Every structure is written in structure tokens, then in C-alpha cells.
Amino acid sequence: MASMQAHRRSFIRHPADIPLAIAVDGAHRRSAPRLKDVSEGGLACLSRRPLSVGAAVVLSIPLVQPPFRAAGVVVWCQRQGGAYEVGIRFADADDLFAARMVEQVCQIEHYRQQVRREEGRLLDAEAAAREWIERHAASFPAFGNGRPH
After folding, report:
1. Average pLDDT over residues 118-138
2. What is the pLDDT of residue 1?
3. Please, are residues 30 and 49 in contact by the beta-carbon 8 Å criterion?
4. DSSP secondary structure code for residue 141 in this structure
5. Which of 140, 61, 48, 53 is nearest to 88 (CA)?
6. What does each C-alpha distance from 84 to 35, 67, 79, 112, 142 come to in angstroms?
7. pLDDT (0 to 100) of residue 29
8. SS3 for 22?
9. Type and span of the H or E element at 115
């Protein structure tokens, strides 16, 4: 378990502001979970309610178009203050690559919003992507070793 936690920590962390939709056994959750990180096996999210280990889920990230959708299984759920951190393993290995692309898009969108808030600059998606890549792509972990380049 300790090595699993260390492995999870080796990947870039999100500011936990990327919205997710999670359907458990076909029913959408109303707890507004937020993406925390994506790793080689799946993703972690924050939820106001616990999810049962072993539950089959369908994830979607509506921030990107078309929305990212993937099937998964809840592999762990831990209380974190007033919320729950939930680990979900992707059911299909192809979804992992798509999730990494979504993760990068989400990081760029977060950067665009941060620049608007902190600097008052309005960037379109393309300009935000160029700046984010120049400033942060080298610290975005690659699959395989989980360490920044």
C-alpha cells in the first residue's frame, strides 16, 4: 500500500478544480466530484460522498469537447477531511492515453483561467496552450517512470 501511495504521488497533481461526472451502476452522482490526478493506472478524484470499492463506474469530463468518457472500477476510497479521495482504475488501457490527453487539456484550461484571474490577461485556447507548453510541459510527467523530464 505504501508503494502504491508513493507511486500515486509521483504524478503531477491537479488543483482539484476540474469537474467530473461519475455514474455508478448507471446512476449519476450529484456530489460534483473533482479530478485530482491521472496516473498510469487510472485517476484520483475528490468526492463529497464515498464510493464503494469494487463499484463499476463510468467517468466523464465535460470540460473538453467531446466530453471524455471511460469505464472504470473504484479501487480505493479514503476520507480526507470533509470529503473522500477516490481511486478509479480504467477498465480499458486505451482510455489511459485519452485520459492523459484530457489531463493536459485540463491543465491548460486551468492555466488560462489562472492567468485571467491573476494577471487580467484573456488568452484563447491556442495561446494558453502555447504558453503552458513553454512553461510547464517539461514538468508534466511522462508515462513509464512517472518523473518529470
Report:
1. 86
2. 43
3. no
4. P
5. 53
6. 12, 24, 4, 28, 27
7. 62
8. strand
9. helix 93-119
Q: How far apart are CA 6 and CA 113, in angstroms?
A: 30
Write the Ramachandran bin of 86: left for phi over 0, alpha for psi from -120 to 50, otherwise beta. beta
- The Cα 51–Cα 113 span in angstroms is 30
pLDDT band at 115 (very low <50, low <70, confident <90, very high): very high
Residue type, 16: A
Q: Which of 107, 92, 113, 112 is CA-nearest to residue 138?
A: 107
Beta-sheet pairing, 42-47 with 21-24? unpaired
DSSP 92: S
Average pLDDT over residues 110-123: 92
> How far is residue 31's CA from residue 20's CA, in Å, rounded to a whole number?
10
pLDDT at 77: 96
Q: Cell digits for 140?
A: 508534466
Query: Which residue in this structure is represented by grid cell 493536459?
Result: 104
Q: Is the pTM of this model over 0.85?
A: no
**Alpha carbon distance 41, 95 (integer Å):** 10
Beta-bridged to residue 45, according to DSSP, are 35, 86
CB neighbours (10 Å) of residue 76?
16
